[in-house]
């Protein structure tokens, strides 16, 4: 979901921001799913290229199939099964030695549980293959731009930014696998005898990695926010109205509860981190893009459905176009300091879509024609008011 959202957002930004080439950034930092995207951009893939790789072109040879992420971690299962006989013996001895203490026995048997369900090596193999093509590289040291892929070392809890001196010899594909190894789903990744897991478990953005390089404009994309399930609307007598398929998130079972918990944890750290960055780097313009917390599509979409991925990527693309339009007065002066301008004509073009399979059907519309007209009129009046205020015509 994170990768799909980021592809939609970056595609909209690439179209609407003039003077901002997403393949010519000074520094790229990728964490978790964002490590896929950062590694792709640093390797010369445009956001539209990434859309074709991850979202479209079902018959494209290099296309990424999410089903790869669901292959069982057979090697991990085999290793844990092989450890059972001695563990059973230890558990039996602990049970007898402690006069029937079941807790001591269970503690030992717990070591036989797999550390992950699915085979993360598929990520490494896929990226190693596409980064071996002409003009690409799987070597941090051979990239034209700086790329950092952040993972957390399991034994210390410390963050490691692969691509930094001393760890830049690690293949990019392996670093991405480590950065996206969400505990419980994927086993920790062994790199040089050290084990690594999802980089978002330590910090969410790791923006300080880029800020330490002295960047003056930092664009941050965070795809995961906690979902706000309670909705209220005018005219319903103050009654609660739900815009999602569940009356309560708890009704979705363990996957939904874990998803909401994970999002809440990483988002609380993001808010705190952004405040620290603003204080520590006052001369850097830091712009954050993320979903609306009440966006049900960003929480409930079935990502293993082809149509679901298409729809979500287009949804993120159009939402980003709308957000840029609504924030244009706030963002324009900040971006202008770095030679970047917002193309209002691109944002007003209602016919633009990202996912080609949706262009004819137009399953997604930003607003009705009436609301589009009203929005355009409001924007014009807003511009007029700002112009009058700037020329002293308003008191």
Outline the structure in words:
By secondary structure, the protein is α+β, with helices and mostly antiparallel strands. The protein has helices at 2-16, 33-42, 47-54, 74-82, 84-97, 102-109, 121-130, 172-179, 208-211, 253-280, 297-300, 306-326, 328-336, 344-348, 369-390; strands at 17-18, 27-31, 146-153, 159-162, 189-191, 194-198, 217-221, 231-232, 240-241, 285-289, 341-342. Helix 1 packs antiparallel against helix 3 (47-54). The protein starts with a helix and ends in a 5-residue tail after the last helix. 30% of the residues are buried.
What is the topology?
Elements: H1 2-16, E1 17-18, E2 27-31, H2 33-42, H3 47-54, H4 74-82, H5 84-97, H6 102-109, H7 121-130, E3 146-153, E4 159-162, H8 172-179, E5 189-191, E6 194-198, H9 208-211, E7 217-221, E8 231-232, E9 240-241, H10 253-280, E10 285-289, H11 297-300, H12 306-326, H13 328-336, E11 341-342, H14 344-348, H15 369-390
Parallel strand pairs: 2-3, 7-10
Antiparallel strand pairs: 1-11, 3-4, 3-6, 5-6, 8-9
